[in-house]
Design a protein that fits this description.
Elements: H1 2-35, H2 46-100, H3 107-128, E1 131-132, E2 135-136, E3 162-166, E4 169-172, H4 177-181, E5 182-186, E6 192-196, H5 197-209, H6 213-267, H7 271-303
Antiparallel strand pairs: 1-2, 3-4, 5-6
Helix pairs in contact: 1-7, 2-3, 2-5, 2-6, 3-5, 5-6
Length: about 300
């Protein structure tokens, strides 16, 4: 009789352990199928879960970098276009100055030229007061208001904003208006000064009003050459930055794709296979429970 009691306890404890283990496995499979993931909790696979969390962190960072690249590219392309427009205007002003450097120009020519110069100045101010997505892109950090007043006075600051386009890599995304309008000029005496295209235009208008062809020949044309060279350099910098940002976005997108593939390999569940395993586990659990029930009945009969 004592032997039968021990057998009954042994059978009960052994099968209870098996049922609990199979039930736990069944619940795990159910969670995986519901979430459609191989790893739901850290207990499923600690190493895989840690790697998945690392990939999630990386993907989140890459999303931020990609968004910054898009924003940087938009602002830099807009800046490059407007800088090119300023370049074209200043080049046209030089052509006009060359025509007006002749002593044979008449009053009508001068009047028309002054009108053109005033319009060119307005155009340049308009280009440099470009607004994009609520930002005045040539105002430095002062992005909430126009960069230039109607008379050409600069209202912004001399700072350039930047964005992080990849880990610890920051790129300039705008140009203060003074980067475009101010330039260094070395005169015939070898003296170098910083000038503004706005001032050069104003002085050129004054020269025309005074019929001072010598000043146009000796001063303004050289100043305009220096301005054109400076603006061309800024335009080249903008173009280079656009290419660098575009390359960074391509690299970010490539890394993002690789990270998603790694995460998918670690996490994505083959639902069909999992369902087959679930059915097999359910069948095994049912069989264990049935066997346990029958064994307990037999042992109880023997005991009685």
């Amino acid at each position: 009789m004592f032997y039968s009691r021990v057998s009954t306890n042994q059978i009960y404890l052994s099968n209870q352990s098996s049922i609990m283990r199979q039930s736990s496995n069944l619940a795990k499979l159910n969670n995986m199928i519901t979430a459609k993931k191989k790893v739901v909790d850290a207990s499923d696979d600690p190493l895989a879960k840690k790697k998945i969390m690392q990939e999630n962190k990386l993907l989140k960072e890459l999303e931020t970098y990609s968004a910054n690249c898009i924003q940087a590219n938009s602002q830099l392309e807009a800046s490059e276009q407007q800088i090119q427009a300023v370049y074209d205007s200043v080049s046209a002003i030089k052509s006009l100055a060359l025509r007006m450097a002749s002593d044979t120009t008449n009053n009508e020519d001068k009047t028309n030229a002054i009108t053109e110069l005033n319009q060119a100045k307005e155009d340049i101010i308009s280009y440099l007061n470009t607004e994009l997505d609520g930002f005045y892109i040539f105002g430095g950090y002062q992005t909430s208001s126009a960069a230039f007043a109607d008379d050409g006075t600069y209202l912004g600051d001399n700072n350039a904003r930047s964005l992080e386009i990849s880990k610890s890599v920051y790129k300039q995304v705008n140009f203060p208006g003074t980067d475009v309008t101010e330039f260094e000029h070395t005169d015939a005496a070898g003296v170098t000064t910083t000038l503004s295209i706005m001032t050069v235009i104003d002085n050129l208008i004054t020269d025309m009003q005074n019929s001072d062809a010598d000043s146009i020949r000796d001063l303004r044309i050289g100043e305009l050459d220096s301005a054109i060279e400076s603006i061309s350099h800024v335009s080249s910098v903008a173009g280079s930055l656009v290419k660098e940002v575009e390359l960074s976005k391509v690299i970010n997108d490539t890394v993002k794709l690789q990270s998603k593939m790694i995460k998918s390999d670690l996490e994505d569940l083959d639902v069909t296979t999992a369902l087959t395993e679930y059915e097999a586990a359910q069948t095994a659990l049912n069989a264990t429970m049935k066997t346990t029930s029958e064994a307990l009945k037999m042992t109880l009969l023997n005991y009685l």
